[in-house]
Amino acid sequence: MITIKSEREIELMREAGRLVARVLDMLENEIRPGISTKRLDELAEQFIRDHNAVPSFLNYVPKGESGVTPYPATLCVSINEEVVHGVPSTKRIIHEGEIVSVDCGVYKSGYHGDSARTYIIGEVDPAVRQLVDVTRECLDLGIEQAVEGNRLHDISAAIEKHARSFGYSVIENMVGHGIGSELHEEPAVPNYGRPHTGVKLRSGMTLAIEPMIALGRSRRAVSKRGAWAAVTEDGSYSAHFEHTIAIGKAQAEILTK
Known about the structure:
Helix content is 28%, strand content 24%.
């Protein structure tokens, strides 16, 4: 069931969203060659708890899935060909020339905020830099479609059209989602689709829109058995950006800005 949030609920989501943005801003000043992904995770968790909130991802188990190991970290830190759900580790050190996608969720006052950014570490190949730039643009274009009266897949189609115009692949088995008092709510928000299809958008709907775009031909992210991290099928680089937004009458409000 898709929930319509009241203004009070959206205000609480603004609080959570602003904190997520502050975490990612803080990490932008810390992420550099030689730092471990575990250290980034420690910094993020401490920052969140210092602001009277809880990490959304830590110990998370998808609803309805039994036998799944709870997610063991505050952040998802995914490097190069990792699309999503890279688990922080003291052994995973960030190097010059990599791209690092950091996904963070915060639970505060009963509501979640969820956002992701891809950081470029030093000098990278121009084709990789363009991938990151275009993925960010895909998010912006998807958000432009998130207005009352449009259909859900207008968001999806805008993302797909822009990505494919550069010859990139859209990761089809990883999607955005509704968000609110639960981290993952209905509806699923795919990054591909036909315009003018899907549920009608209404003011008060809150969504996490998150394009995941690959440089190569991979259309799926795949995981080894028991592993959280999902990588591109062909080993090509992937970028990821995400905002939590509220549908508006004239334009969406970005809650994680």
